Each structure stands twice: as C-alpha cells, then as structure tokens.
Amino acid sequence: METQLLVKIIHMSVAGLAIVAILARALTLFVGTQGNMPNPVARTVLVALQHFAITVIVLTGIVSLFLKDFDVQPWFYAKVILFLVLVSSLGKAYKKDDSILLVQRRAGLFIAVVSLVSILALVMIKPNFG
Ligand code: HEM
Questions:
Q1: CB 123: neighbour CB atoms within 10 A?
Q2: Which residue's alpha carbon is nearest to atom 19 within ligand 1?
Q3: Ligand 1 centre distance from Cα of residue 43 (Å)
Q4: What is the pTM of this model?
Q5: Torsional class of 91: left (φ above 0), alpha (ψ -120 to 50), beta (otherwise)
Q6: Would the CB of 15 count as within 6 Å of ligand 1?
Q7: Residues 6 or more apart from 100 whose CB is under 8 A from it?
Q8: Any stretches that span the bilayer, and where are they (predicted)?
Q9: Which is nearest to 122 in space by CA: 71, 82, 65, 64?
Q10: pLDDT, tens digit, for every residue of 54-81?
Q11: Which uninterrupted H or E stretch holds 82?
Q12: Please, are residues 114 and 98 in contact by the beta-carbon 8 Å criterion?
C-alpha cells in the first residue's frame, strides 16, 4: 500500500482512539470525583491511552507533512493551533493540583471538546480561506 495512504489511515484511526480516550476520561470529572480531583479509577489506563494517541497523531502528522512536501491548505494552520489549545487545556483540566477547582477543570474540558469538534469540522469541511 502506498506509504502516504498508510500513514494517513494510522493518523485517522488513532485520532478516533484519541476521541474515545478524551470522552472516557471526561467522565472522571463528573462521576466519582474526590474533592477537587477527578475519579482515580482507571486513571493510569486513560492517561496511557491519551498519551499514546496524542504522540502517534503528532508523529504521523509530521511524517504526512514530509510525504506531502509541506504542501498544505491554509486551514491546516488553524488545525495545528486548535490542536495546541486541545492539548494544553487537557493538561489544565487534569493537572495533579488539589487547588484547581472542579469547575475550573470542567471549563478546561469544555475548551478541549470545543477545540476537538472544531478540528473535526475543519478536516471534514476543509474550508477555503483563500
Ligand atoms: C485531534 C487531532 C487531529 C485530528 C482529529 C486529525 C484528523 C485528520 C484527518 C481526518 C485527516 C484526513 C483528512 C483528509 O484527507 O480527508 C488528517 C490529515 C492530516 N493531518 Fe491530521 N488530525 C489531527 C492532528 C494533526 C496534527 C497535530 C498534525 C500535524 C503535526 C496533523 C497533520 C495532518 C496532515 C499533514 C494530514 C494530511 C495527510 C495527507 O493528506 O496525506 N494532524 N488529519
């Protein structure tokens, strides 16, 4: 199979895995919370899944860029910025710091989900900003 297509299939499949991991972990901010901290059950598995998915997305994304000779549409830059917002707000939402209120964590999660939905809209619509 053509390398570019294979890398793209891995990129998209792992993006699907990331969505499942983000949504599953979101539940830990609503069910079984302990004070200001998320539900600790399955924390390790969810963290591992999320880290794996995000790492593979970035690696396959960078490999795709090289395979395409960096020939990208303007919306691609919006996607990268939204991805950075996604990762940083997830980091805030689950930071191991008891002084971060649950409501602040949920606000972080909300921003992350809005970024994720926007990335999905971008890759589906591929808007022409030109
Ligand atoms: C949650 C984050 C992400 C999601 C859901 C996502 C999803 C997708 C999808 C669905 C496609 C296929 C679009 C199509 O051709 O129809 C795609 C392509 C691509 N993505 Fe991502 N992506 C994400 C993050 C990233 C990041 C961080 C990078 C860069 C480091 C990246 C780089 C690329 C490139 C270069 C392509 C074009 C591949 C090609 O046409 O061969 N993506 N992405």
A1: 13
A2: 61
A3: 27
A4: 0.95
A5: alpha
A6: yes
A7: 36, 92
A8: 12-32, 44-63, 75-94, 106-125
A9: 82
A10: 999 999 999 999 999 999 999 999 999 9
A11: helix 75-93
A12: no
Q: Which two tokens stand for residue 88?
A: 């940083």
Sign of CA dihedral 18, 55, 51, 96: negative
Asked if 86 contacts 115 with a C-beta cutoff of 8 angstroms, the reply is: yes
Q: Indicate the SS3 state at residue 37.
A: strand
Residue 43 neighbours by CB under 8 Å, 6+ apart: 28
Residue 1's pLDDT is 66
Contact 33, 39 (CB under 8 A): yes
Instruction: Determine the Cα–Cα distance for residues 109 and 99; give it in Å rounded to an integer.
Output: 17
**Quick check: helix, strand or coil at residue 34?**
strand
Length of the chain: 130
How far, in Å, is the centroid of ligand 1 from the Cα of 61?
6
* Gap between the Cα atoms of 62 and 89, Å rounded: 22
Coil, strand or helix: which one is 125?
helix
- CB-CB contact of 8 with 57 (8 Å): no
